[in-house]
């Protein structure tokens, strides 16, 4: 099983009304939630570890997970409210206003973390849960506790505005990246993580030198690159798509890469640290393919395996 660790929230998506004013529709979302949903739809064994409310939105999230074959055994349920993210779309790109104080996801602490079973072979971390405290400290502690023998994948999805103390955020994040076997970043994420290096390849190499064996960098319409454990690089082009919006694109890409690696028996710590160019290129290409379907329709709606 791949256990995805991080936020599950409600995206309030604007929709036009006859009056000309926007209304908002509640969609299940969150970067880590989206990755788990995409993995489930690609028929990989997957679960979600997240703080989820008992309120109506939390019930909506749990139901959506089950409908996409994501195990809910690791959800930490509470009576705190659900995080709400109000979305503004401009030319297909999303900006967000988050309402996250005292929520079920944000307030998850180490004393309520579940024990995980031996069938969990890989851990995925990412999203705003790595920036917001106390949950960010909780997920860092969980990585320390469970990551030594399991494959660790991190997509930091940088959100410095969520962290009141940027120094604490950067230090915690760099410690987690150092323990990862594979890291996926956007080109913008990479520039923030490695501000003292110029150029994408130099920044990616500097990140790899911090500890992860494999570094993946997405570049939007310019495709993605991957640095292998030996430092060599592979590159894939973006799939052509009629873009409706980019919500969930990176999350689906993550799922596609991990799904293909898992299918090939390569989602282990040892396998990722000796990954070869053909296997990585195949995984990147599959990630680009599933992401292209997501951007061709509204919202974070990853494809099912039979759609491929």
Automatic annotation (TrEMBL):
Superkingdom: Bacteria
Record-listed E.C. numbers: 2.7.1.-
Cross-referenced InterPro entries: Carboh/pur_kinase_PfkB_CS, PfkB_Carbo_kinase, PfkB_dom, Ribokinase-like
Top class in the EC scheme: transferase
Ranges of residues in domain Carbohydrate kinase PfkB: 2-303
This protein's UniProt keywords: ATP-binding, Kinase, Nucleotide-binding, Transferase
Segments passing through the bilayer: none
Example GO molecular function: kinase activity
Family: Belongs to the carbohydrate kinase PfkB family.
Annotated protein name in UniProt: Carbohydrate kinase
């Amino acid at each position: 099983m791949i256990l995805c660790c991080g936020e599950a929230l409600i995206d309030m998506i604007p929709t036009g009304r006859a009056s000309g004013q926007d209304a908002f529709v509640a969609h299940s979302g969150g970067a880590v939630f989206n990755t788990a949903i995409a993995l489930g739809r690609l028929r990989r064994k997957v679960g979600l570890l997240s703080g989820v409310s008992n309120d109506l939105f939390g019930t909506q999230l749990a139901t959506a997970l089950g409908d996409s074959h994501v195990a809910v055994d690791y959800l930490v349920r509470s009576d705190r409210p659900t995080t709400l993210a109000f979305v503004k779309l401009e030319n297909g790109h999303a900006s967000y206003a988050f309402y996250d104080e005292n929520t079920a996801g944000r307030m998850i602490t180490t004393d309520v973390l579940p024990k995980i079973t031996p069938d969990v072979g890989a851990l995925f971390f990412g999203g705003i849960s790595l920036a917001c405290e106390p949950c960010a400290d909780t997920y860092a502690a969980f990585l320390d506790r469970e990551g030594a023998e399991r494959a660790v994948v991190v997509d930091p999805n940088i959100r410095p505005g969520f962290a009141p103390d940027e120094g604490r955020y950067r230090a915690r994040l760099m410690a987690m990246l150092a323990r990862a076997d594979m890291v996926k970043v956007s080109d913008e994420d990479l520039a923030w993580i490695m501000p003292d290096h110029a150029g994408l390849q130099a920044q990616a190499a500097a990140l790899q030198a911090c500890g992860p064996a494999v570094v993946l960098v997405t570049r939007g319409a310019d495709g993605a690159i991957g640095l292998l454990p030996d430092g060599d690089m592979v590159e894939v082009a973006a799939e052509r798509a009629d873009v409706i919006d980019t919500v969930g694109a990176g999350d689906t890409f993550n799922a596609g890469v991990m799904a293909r690696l898992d299918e090939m028996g390569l989602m282990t710590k040892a396998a990722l640290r000796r990954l070869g160019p053909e296997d990585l290129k195949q995984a990147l290409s599959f990630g680009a393919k599933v992401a292209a379907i997501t951007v061709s329709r509204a919202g974070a709606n990853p494809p099912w395996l039979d759609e491929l």
